[in-house]
Amino acid sequence: LRSKAKSRSEQDFGGPVGCIKRLALPWLDDDPKPGDLLFDASFESANLGRVVRTSKFEWDIFIRADICSPKHALWYYFTVTNAMAGQTVLFNVHGLCKTRSLLRDGMGPVVRTSAGQWQRMPAANVFYHQDDPGESKSYIASFCYCFNDTNDMVEFAYCYPYSYTDLQLFLRSLALQCTGFLRRQTLCQSIQGRDVPLLTIASPALLERMDDNETLPSVMISARIHPGETPASYLCEGVLRFLCSSDPAAVRLRNTLVIQVVPMLNVDGVVHGQYRCNMKGHDLNRCWRSPSVSAHPTILAVKQHLSRTKLQTLAYVDLHAHSTNPSGFFYGNAAADSHRATAQWELPNALARRNASFSLARTKFNNDREKTGTGRRAVGSVIGSGHSFTFEVSFYGFTQEDHVELTPFRQRDYIRLGVDLGRALDDTYGQQSREMQDSI
User: Fold this and answer.
1) Comparing C-alpha atoms, which of 351, 315, 357 is closest to residue 333?
2) Catalytic residue among 44, 229, 237, 392
């Protein structure tokens, strides 16, 4: 469904704030000829602020920075029509905020034609350079593209899009195949009134015991606190596909743990094509210490849920995407106790055994002061003896032990990594809970 249900989502949605619409382009009144490219960003999750035609073969693209937070600008997503077959164009995407970036390593945009699937543009076609020497945090990504079909609509994006509507379609299909052990409820509503879903997955017997307020072991997972980090949604989809499958390991895990998932924390930001912040300009992953109902309702709702539940949270995993590092890796909280410090490595070790795109070498445990407001740190203090992780995956690709070159991630690679994360959760916390039950 998602591959062809283009993210032109919600009924009556007029497009992200501050993005161009096709009818607003200044040269349309002049009856554009073939080759006069037409740009559009009036659909869900799109981001394109304005365009300037330098020549028939070169266009300057200016992305729209996050609303109320102009220093955050990286995500873009737009469509182009009215090209001539064989027309080669140089696009210069202005306003990118990262000095260090995988774009320097050849990360190109992803591209999709009307009849095709998303593909990563070859590294040879991509260049990353400083925009204005006086603006240290403004960079340009330039890339060449050759259009193949005069009647085609071509989509360009920073990474594989995954919209709020995509999530709704996936959850709807998941519910059809997961009767009896999947519950969906609304955790809260976003600032703009959108439902933030909370999923609970467990065997019918465990769900019944949960309803009776028994203390049961659980794991909690969240994703898309940063709306432009779309790989996190593919990871989350992979985890959910595993948890709701008939795989013996998934069945065993559902019989052992209650798994709760918040698959999209910043739904407004996702809809409006933000990169990092919510619609009030707050980076929600720096607001966990003192969230408010007016500015950070989803963060407040998660903290209240964790503090009120009778579930014993063994682990919290917050899914992200990383713009400068390759592969997948964990960040965790440093522990002074040696037994706890050793135990925290069990999940990373289990995932490393299952998936070659995961890096133990990049996994780190620390208590950096600048990360105090993150979910990893704040939830770690709420759940006590449980382990709290940030799981990062590269926007671009991964390296393997004997290879220097990056292998670009595809959508299915992200999903597969999510599936293996689910298996690793069973290898660690599922196994731990079963051993505790056997000893009683």
Assistant:
1) 315
2) 392
Q: What mean pLDDT comes out for the span 373-380?
A: 94
For position 433, what pLDDT does the model report?
Answer: 86
Active site residue 392: yes
- More confident: 343 or 33: 343
Q: What is the pTM of this model?
A: 0.95
Q: pLDDT (tens digit, 9 = 90+) per residue, 180-195?
A: 999 999 999 999 999 9
The whole-number pLDDT of residue 369 equals: 81
